[in-house]
Amino acid sequence: MIEIEAMGGGEAALDALESLARTGAGVSGEASRGRRRRWYRLLVTNPFAGETLQPVVWVALAGRRPVGCLLGVPFRGRAGEVSLEGHWGVDLLVDPDFRGRGIGTRLLKQWRDSSPLALGLGITGTALRLELSLGWRQVPLPPRLVLPLTARGGLLARRCRRSPLPVARRGPGPSGLDVVVSTHGPRGLDQLYDRLAPGWPCHVCRTGAALRWRYASRWRDGFLWVSLLRRRTLVGAAVVRIDAGRWRTKMWIHELMADVTSTVLPCLVGECVRLGRSLDVDLVEGRVTGRALRAALSALGFRNGRREDTFIVHARDPAMARLRPWHREWFLTLGDSGNL
């Protein structure tokens, strides 16, 4: 008899996840401990959690043995004047000895029926077909944008390992802007988000607390902040990750926050590209779905890449029906989803 239990983000849930990762997914002890640290950050230190929205781990149990799990990672967002909240679905795992018994379907139904808004990103194949059959709606996303910086950059297709890169730099920029490249987020992120959010479609909140939670202390993974300030006021910010492999170096743009109607965005992108060239980056790539931002980046030389992402949405609350027109456009970046 398989039972589904909803756990919070406590030690019992983390123990079940780590056990399943080792026995069900074949993850080594060291790797499973690394996953545990990631799960702890996603569930326990999540700034979106509150009285009405809690992190949850749905665990399938055969007796006391965990044989399946699914994480519900809280998020809060906005669609115009409407506030959004719900869970990203992350790390659906089923023990190989128990596959084919409908455990994955039961876990997905728990997520669907428990979360006001259930979002999934990067789902493919059988999992995607199953979720669509359970009521999720696929939101079409445009291809990722790429900017080759070298001849080799135009040919890149392989995934590569990460490389640590602590960097700190400050100096004058164009148009009277000060440029800061650092491993820590700047002050003024809340005010910058408040100015930009009204022009974005549906999106997950990018307050200072949310962004610091995503990227704080992650410079060892190659994350860097590029900030633009005008008279000590933050007017633009980007988060990039330097991914240095044996045969090439890639820059991933995880966040890009700037007014697309001003000169700040070209300056911010230009500083990211300048940083990339100084580090011998071959290719810049980002997930950019907002139409205005894509148009601005296209004018700066970015072009469609080959990779396309899959994004699904399920709204449990009937009141969300008024958001139907918004389903066609979301502001998503590489920083979105609970997988980070």
Tell me roughly what share of residues is in helical segments: 25-40%
Termini, distance in Å?
A: 34 Å
Which CATH architecture of the largest domain?
3-Layer(aba) Sandwich
Low-confidence stretches: 157-170
Query: If you compute it from the alpha carbons, what radius of gyration comes out, rounded to the nearest whole angstrom?
Result: 20 Å
Strand proportion? 25-35%
Would you list the SSEs in sequence order as H and E? EHHEEEHEHEEEEHEHEEEHEHEE
Averaged pLDDT, please? 85
| The number of domains | 2
Do you know the CATH topology of the largest domain? Aminopeptidase
Number of strands: 16
Number of helices: 8
Shape: globular
The first-level CATH class name of the largest domain: Alpha Beta
Helix vs. strand class: alpha+beta
- How can the largest sheet be summarized? 8 strands, mixed
CATH superfamily of the largest domain: Gcn5-related N-acetyltransferase (GNAT)
